[in-house]
Design brief:
The chain has 238 residues and is an alpha+beta fold. It is built from eight helices and twelve strands. It has helices spanning 14-43, 65-68, 91-98, 104-108, 121-131, 145-148, 167-170, 209-213, and strands at residues 48-49, 55-58, 61-64, 74-79, 111-117, 137-139, 152-153, 161-162, 165-166, 177-178, 181-188, 191-199. α5 (121-131) links the parallel β5 (111-117) and β6 (137-139).
Length: 238
């Protein structure tokens, strides 16, 4: 058999390939079951009441955090890196939004998805139009929201903390400035609660409806899931 200088996987027989593929399948199933266990644990996280009245700039005027739910029970916010001094959003966050799939399933599961950045609304609207995006995007400019959820890091405003590590734990290279993350909130009547946040590489695969729902208290709401008693669930198929 001719060889090639192009890097490539080993060339084997069909039987050998099948044997190694089945071995890999065993490991893939272990990963799937571990992911199910972690999602079940996440659905059992406690939550913390939001006491501050955060105000955001929106195309239709000022809105508070409860308004961002758009009448639904759960809210997923992607913290998009966009410093007020920048004219364009972060390239990594831009790639994240470009990769988002059809999120209409979230509405059917009582969940809303939105972007929040610290840049003024006019810059967000201009960049959104440039990219042709339809996802709701709100400005937290002038509020504590980014600092309280540890995606704007300025120790003159608040102690440095990112991805659940403080400045000392990040030494010798503590991060500063704008960072990205994803936070989840839950609404009960007029009260809003924080249930979950993830940062850094924790956000990189959260671009489709299923994985975003996995971050919420109610999850995918399918009966294969291990959820607390009383959680809304529907048949997985049918």
């Amino acid at each position: 058999m001719a060889t090639s200088a192009i890097p490539h996987p080993r060339i084997v027989s069909q039987d050998q390939w099948l044997g190694e593929r089945k071995n890999l399948l065993t490991h893939e199933k272990e990963l799937t079951w571990q992911r199910d266990r972690i999602n079940a644990e996440r659905r059992r996280l406690p939550m913390v009441k939001i006491e501050k009245d955060y105000v955001f700039d929106a195309p239709n005027g000022k809105q508070n955090l409860k308004s961002l739910f758009d009448g639904r029970r759960q809210l997923i916010i992607y913290h998009f890196m966009f410093d007020p001094a920048w004219d364009k959003g972060c390239t990594g966050c831009t790639s994240y939004v470009d990769a988002l799939g059809d999120l209409s399933m979230l509405r059917d599961r009582d969940a809303t998805f939105a972007l929040v950045s610290r840049a003024p609304l006019a810059k967000l609207e201009a960049y959104k139009a440039l990219k042709g995006w339809k996802v709701p995007w709100f400005s937290s400019f002038g509020s504590d929201f980014n600092y309280d959820f540890h995606v704007t890091l300025d120790e003159t405003v608040a102690p440095i903390e990112y991805n659940y590590r403080d400045k000392a734990e990040m030494e010798p290279n503590p991060v500063k400035g704008e960072e990205h993350g994803l936070s989840v909130f839950f609404r009960m009547n007029d009260d809003v609660f924080h249930t979950y946040s993830t940062y850094a590489r924790g956000t990189e695969s959260l671009t489709d409806a299923y994985t975003l729902l996995d971050t919420t208290p109610y999850g995918r709401q399918q009966d294969f899931e291990d959820s607390p008693p009383g959680w809304p669930q529907k048949p997985t198929y049918g």
